[in-house]
Amino acid sequence: MMSIKQEQGGDILTLDPQIYKFPGRSKSSVWNHFGFQKGSDGELDKSRAVCKICRQGIRYSGNTTNLHCHLTKHRRENTGLFEDLDESWMHASPDFKFKYVEAVVQSTVEDIKAAGNIQSTSSTTDDNKSGQRSKHQQLNDTIVNFFIEHLLPLSVVESTSFYSMIAVADPMYVVPDKEYLFGNLIHQCYNETKKSIASEISGNEVITVAEVWESITGEKFVSISVQLINTLWQMKTFLLKTVSLNSVINDDVFLTLFKATCEEWEIKSSTTLLNDGSKIIQKAITSLHLINMPSCTTGLLTAGENLMKNQTVTKSVIEQVILIIGQILQDKSPAELYGEMFEIIKDYKEIEAKTFSWTAFTSVILCILENKQSFQTKNMDSKLNITDERWQEFSDMEAVLSPIQKAYKLLSDNSSVISSMILPILRKLEMALATKKSDSEFMKVLKKATWSSVSTPFNSTAVRKFLLISSLLDPRYKDLQFVETTEKSQARELLGTVATEMYRERNGKNGAYDGEIIVVEESGDVIRIEPMEKKQKLDHSENRNGTDDWLADVVCKDKPVDKGSDKEEKVLVEIDHYISTQQVSTPPLQWWSSRENLYPTLSRLARRYLCMNNFSVSENNTVKNAKLSQETVDKLLFLHHNYYGR
User: Fold this and answer.
1) What would the CATH number be for the domain defined by 191-295+614-642?
2) Exposure string (b/e) for 487-509, b if CB count within 10 Å is 16 or more?
3) Which residues of the chain form CATH 3.30.420?
4) Is 418 helix (H, G, I), strand (E, B) or coil?
5) Model confidence over 402-422: pLDDT tens digits?
6) N or C, which end of the chain has less CB nearby within 10 Å?
7) How far is it, in rounded angstroms, from Cα 529 to Cα 403?
């Protein structure tokens, strides 16, 4: 039998039996919010109507007056705001893990009760009404946070099971319907978060990011975000906009969307658009004169996938590896025979060549090579016809894929990877994939094809220039030992140009600097600052003779052009002293944060060129698995990424 607790003329049901609809036909809309439960005899107990919202039992004798009073007394003043509860999501989405949702909600409720924020029962006395409202507001916030964090369909909030779980925390709490949850509570949270982010973006150097991604349901979206380094020298990424691609959207529509997003957020200083290679993004890059910065992670993924799809080169090797996996899994005691190797390959029982990811293949083939002697001992060589030539091909493929996998893992697992690291990574891969005279023809083909896939996206002159400046502004790589001598000189010249442009833009002048120049000398941790000696003023009243004028072109420096020199003198002094400092292993943001006043222009430039990181909207499995409508996806994803300080 269920246990029932009396509460002000009604009963609070402390268990969660199913609530059944009013039997037969009824004209009253109040039955949208009430139902009956079965008694111990298995029949509906029609003497007590149960509120679907708060689980309270209300005595029922044939009329609905008590039920209307209950809604009026304990719910919103306008009961017409309530709509039918839609639980169709439970049937439409059979793969939705409701047990997981229930566990998380229950855990959330228990945490709240343990913290003393919410009582399990409520009193309606005047003394604690204000306190109760405060507790209800806290529960409002908890529900909002719960939906934002787990990206749940809003219909969950109107399910009977959700009502009953929240009732454990506070039976008197009014669970908001999905319209109120999204239109009021989530919307308020969105506006507050948006205001906070806008203040960080305002006047800052940012890089815009556009990404097309696909959810687990097959729906495609395009997301626009920004990356920046704030005034505290912290790396930040903010998701600004997400739009479904299921509606008609092409490059013109995206261009309009991108421009509108930049205007809405008052983004004026972005020069670079990091994108995943999607075609709909290209027109925005061209029209707005942005640098099309490819994603290094996407490039590595493409290189690995292209290698696996190369039917003429790698097909037979991949098929051989799959045969080996099948043979191992058919053995009677594979775990005892193959040990660690079995643990790695046991997940590939149903594998096919077309679905074998290059990262998984690399791990498996390395494991096979490490157990070569064991294969030979068990006569697996002859059983599977693994020739010496095939063993060499295994080794060649592993030698090509391993550096790609290491670079991919570095970029995927390390949140501190920034744009200044791309050129060093590319140089490392170039060295690993360089062909040698001793390489077999098979390996030469693999290396050339792989390096072409990795390097081609970064061959653009504009991209190369951006990466050169980025690496030069990183105190860990400023010596540029990973590029040719000509590019080192080019990087210095490029830095002078962009620094001068920034200086003149921020100071509103287009001429040579005529103020005080700060000289910085660093020795270890000691920094000395002193003004540069001022030039002696020329006394125009002094007499001059013609000989002075005739020799001027060989004894005097060129006079600055009146309209302003090509580079600003103060900027060049900053660059000279920065270049003269020792290359260190200090993280770049930490290094620049302590020298912002010493290098006012270069530090600002560092914010522009070092803020690009390896952010991806779709990397989060919660995002991929979300089942969100086109109307809610923008705000919920915005809050999911930004509200929790991603």
Assistant:
1) 3.30.420
2) beebbbebbbebbbebbbeeeee
3) 191-295+614-642
4) strand
5) 999 999 888 877 767 889 999
6) N
7) 45
